[in-house]
Design goal:
251 residues, alpha/beta, 6-stranded mixed sheet, 10 helices, 6 strands, 11% strand
Length: 251
């Protein structure tokens, strides 16, 4: 086999792996190895060289297109719209929730119902805004029936999309709202109470867990501890990006 044929085959395999992961595959390096011909005769032949095909870059738009075409789990059969996420393309903060509700499914946007309005107020209290310096996404991109908690296999089928978004967005910090977001991001079964009020890291990114806004709507006594979480988050964010409120988008 000629070196150029090996390169073409490597590129095909890498592109397929990228599609399965939803972003640049960790199983393949970004640059192909330097292949050699199997025999000296190949180098002396005048065969046409197969051009190297560069895989298309992963973008929020390309991820959203893959989400829209996804049928990996049963949730895809019931959805009105997929809900990839929304926000600025270079956010200071990524907010992660559980999954779309009825309003989100109808509009194709995350956190637009009552819980979303509360989330906006929570973020505003620490100088954050989905239209200015945040991106908002969920563990699953399709609404679970009756807003139930996503099943493990549903979350597992969808996680590569969120991982790809994080890879592209490169936020300074992550705010995980609720048990489902926290457990799936941190790969743990620990209860929410054990995960709150301390920082974790997700691929070197500081991550803090707090209550989901819908929980605060059901139980107002949780608003005080949620506010304590937000203040802790703000303190850390100010250390990492002192001028995040004055200059919201980072490059």
């Amino acid at each position: 086999m000629r070196a150029n044929e090996k390169t073409a085959l490597w590129t095909l395999l890498k592109t397929s792996s990228d599609c399965l992961y939803g972003y640049s595959s960790p199983d393949f390096p970004e640059v192909p190895p330097l292949f050699a011909d199997d025999t000296l005769n190949f180098a002396q032949q005048n065969a046409t060289t197969t051009p190297f095909v560069q895989a298309a870059p992963v973008t929020l738009e390309s991820i959203a297109q893959k989400v829209a075409a996804c049928t990996r789990c049963e949730l895809s059969k019931r959805r009105t719209n997929v809900v990839p996420g929304m926000g600025v393309p270079n956010p200071i903060v990524l907010v992660v929730g559980e999954g779309p509700g009825a309003e989100e499914d109808a509009q194709g946007l995350p956190f637009v119902g009552p819980a979303g309005k509360l989330l906006d107020k929570m973020l505003a209290a620490i100088s954050l805004d989905r239209n200015v310096n945040c991106y908002i996404a969920n563990i699953v991109k399709c609404r679970p029936p009756n807003n139930r908690t996503p099943l493990p296999e549903e979350a597992g089928a969808c996680m590569s999309f969120l991982e790809a978004q994080i890879h592209v967005l490169k936020p300074k910090m992550i705010l995980a709202t609720g048990r489902t977001a926290a457990q799936n991001l941190l790969k743990t079964t620990s209860p929410l109470g054990e995960l709150r009020s301390r920082f974790f890291t997700y691929n070197t990114i500081p991550l803090l867990v707090t209550y989901h806004p819908s929980a605060l709507l059901r139980n107002e006594s949780l608003k005080r501890p949620a506010w304590e979480d937000l203040k802790l988050f703000r303190t850390k964010l100010t250390e990492l990006a002192p001028d995040y409120a004055a200059h919201p988008a980072h490059s």
